[in-house]
């Protein structure tokens, strides 16, 4: 009967329920014009663009699993005696936060699985953000008009690290308590106000009873709320600016080559979300992580052997572990530069990453919009800086786990510490130099391929007896990809005197800008790409 009624309505020209609902919503929200403008928006297709989606989907999974865990977790520092399902801890004094974590793990249906999915999703989320930002950095996707989006992504990375710190501190087990003690020591190293900050945060002498109740709303409300707003703003700007794309035929700053958002991209994105969720569920079900029952409840006079933070905080741990234990006594006060200096360097290094797009824009003076990505080899200094930062991170990660490295590789912990202290200064420089030379070598290879073609492996004997290898000319799309990049001359101050011999005033900032431009984009950072005349000269006639 319903089908017959629909047919009759159609025959009479009447709108169905779905169409009437759509008309009602469009009349009040203007959805039709919005959908028409954006649902057919074209997105380029490349595997590296999925890195941002991994971040988005793991963040959504974090929210879903976090809501479930919030229903059963009690953020209380009140001490209780445990009588529960985990027999080895029966009769042990612990906080209610730790007891509720044990209840989630052993008594709540699916609680341990959700806990582990939540923890793995946090690690994947931060990993995805770091790798995604490195992709953006190495390809120059942060250039105008996307500087603000880079700042949003950088803020999400920083907040993700802080959210992870507050999250694994909530169970109040011995491992997380050791991490909080580490953070308290760093806060206490702040001159003059460090003690006040510590007392304000912990509600008195460490460990106090207020830290867990204070971290809980920060972890479940404040930081996720800010991050959710930043994610929405980030996605809106991606839509507004259109997606970047790798160089290739038909791709320029005005057009995008790819698939429409609806239905192709939406179908792929939906499938990729469930794939991400499935992998995280598999990891949560098969790979144990953060077994709090094995560590026991936190006690201020105990420290876990081999205590390590999650990998994304190994950077700060390594900075403090390899720093000499300096102390300075001034006017009856003890200063701890051995802790305060690395504690300050951690945000400063992250700040340098956040402001880099603005520094490069100032050095180049480029005001144009860029929607075509750079090949990393064509920006050797930028690529070298990125690899140097990654090498510094790896070195400090080794320093943050020097005890684990020493016990597993049967090495002296002092030797590892001194190796890290030296490598902090040497490894980034070596990484930068090697990366820059590799990029220049790849540029030379690209130039040779454009002029002489691809090696075929076919050997031909010439009439006078010489043997040569036959080279096959590249296709036009390959030639375009290898030669489309720009090689603008770097910024220069110009003549220091005018036509009348009068010396021009030159500001110190101009000298600094010219010096940075020469180092980052000067003749030593590029191999001149072939000109049209060179290509025609080489390819005309029989040059094999």
Short description:
By secondary structure, this protein is mostly helical.
Q: How would you sum up this structure, described in words?
A:
- By secondary structure, the chain is mainly alpha-helical.
- Among the domains are: 40-304, Cytochrome Bc1 Complex, Chain C, CATH 1.20.810; 438-538, no CATH class.
- It has 20 helices and eight strands.
- It has helices at 2-11, 17-29, 31-38, 50-70, 96-106, 111-139, 147-169, 174-188, 194-202, 211-241, 261-286, 292-295, 314-322, 337-364, 380-400, 402-409, 413-452, 476-483, 508-521, 532-539; strands at residues 42-43, 79-81, 93-95, 259-260, 328-330, 333-335, 454-461, 467-472.
- Strands 1-4 form a two-stranded antiparallel sheet. It has a two-stranded antiparallel sheet with strand order 2-3. Strands 5-6 form a two-stranded antiparallel sheet.
- A hairpin with a 5-residue loop joins strand 7 and strand 8 (467-472).
- Helix 5 packs across helix 6, helix 6 (111-139) runs antiparallel to helix 7 and helix 7 packs antiparallel against helix 14 (337-364).
- The longest helix has 40 residues, at 413-452.
- The chain is globular.
- The N and C termini lie far apart (78 Å).
- It catalyses: a quinol + 2 Fe(III)-[cytochrome c](out) = a quinone + 2 Fe(II)-[cytochrome c](out) + 2 H(+)(out).
- Its EC number is 7.1.1.8.
């Amino acid at each position: 009967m319903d089908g017959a009624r629909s047919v009759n309505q159609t025959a009479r020209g009447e709108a169905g329920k779905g169409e009437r609902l759509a008309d009602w919503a469009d009349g009040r929200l203007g959805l039709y014009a919005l959908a028409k403008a954006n649902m057919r928006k074209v997105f380029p297709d490349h595997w590296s663009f999925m890195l941002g989606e991994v971040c988005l989907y793991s963040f959504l999974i974090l929210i879903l699993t976090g809501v479930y865990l919030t229903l059963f977790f009690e953020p209380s520092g009140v001490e209780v005696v445990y009588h529960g399902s985990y027999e080895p801890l029966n009769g042990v004094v612990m906080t209610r936060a730790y007891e509720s974590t044990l209840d989630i793990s052993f008594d709540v249906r699916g609680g341990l699985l959700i806990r582990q999915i939540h923890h793995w999703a946090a690690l994947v989320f931060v990993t995805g953000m770091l790798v995604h930002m490195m992709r953006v950095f190495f390809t120059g996707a942060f250039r105008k008009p996307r500087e603000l989006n880079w700042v949003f992504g950088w803020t999400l990375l920083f907040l993700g690290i802080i959210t992870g710190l507050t999250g694994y501190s909530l169970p109040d087990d011995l491992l997380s308590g050791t991490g909080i003690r580490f953070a308290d020591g760093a806060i206490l190293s702040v001159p003059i106000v460090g003690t006040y900050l510590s007392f304000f945060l912990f509600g008195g002498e460490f460990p106090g009873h207020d830290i867990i109740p204070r971290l809980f709303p920060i972890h479940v409300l404040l930081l996720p709320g800010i991050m959710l707003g930043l994610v929405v703003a980030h996605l809106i700007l991606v839509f507004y600016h259109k997606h970047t794309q790798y160089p290739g035929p038909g791709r320029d700053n005005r057009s995008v080559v790819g698939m429409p958002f609806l239905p192709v991209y939406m179908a792929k994105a939906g499938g990729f979300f469930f794939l991400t969720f499935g992998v995280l569920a598999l990891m949560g079900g098969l790979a144990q992580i953060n077994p709090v029952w094995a560590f026991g409840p936190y006690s201020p006079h105990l420290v876990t052997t081999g205590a390590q933070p999650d990998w994304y905080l190994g950077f700060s741990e390594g900075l403090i572990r390899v720093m000499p234990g300096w102390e300075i006594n001034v006017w009856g006060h003890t200063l701890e530069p051995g802790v305060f200096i690395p504690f300050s360097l951690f945000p400063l290094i992250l700040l340098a990453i956040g402001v880099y797009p603005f520094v490069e824009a100032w050095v180049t003076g480029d005001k144009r919009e860029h929607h075509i990505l750079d090949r990393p080899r064509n920006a050797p200094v930028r690529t070298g800086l990125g690899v140097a930062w990654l090498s510094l991170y790896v070195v400090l990660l080794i320093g943050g786990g020097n005890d684990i490295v020493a016990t597993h590789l049967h090495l002296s912990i002092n030797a590892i510490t001194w190796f890290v202290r030296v490598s902090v200064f040497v490894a980034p420089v070596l990484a930068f130099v090697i990366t820059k030379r590799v990029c220049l070598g790849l540029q030379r290879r690209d130039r040779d391929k454009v002029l002489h073609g691809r090696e075929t492996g076919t050997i031909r004997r010439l009439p006078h007896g010489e043997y040569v290898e036959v080279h096959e000319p590249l296709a036009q799309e390959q030639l375009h990809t290898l030669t489309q990049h720009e090689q603008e001359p770097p910024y220069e101050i110009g003549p220091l005197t005018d036509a009348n011999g009068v010396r021009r005033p030159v500001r110190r900032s101009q000298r600094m800008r010219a010096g940075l431009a020469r180092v980052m984009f000067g003749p030593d950072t590029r191999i001149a790409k072939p000109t049209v005349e060179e290509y025609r000269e080489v390819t005309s006639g029989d040059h094999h």
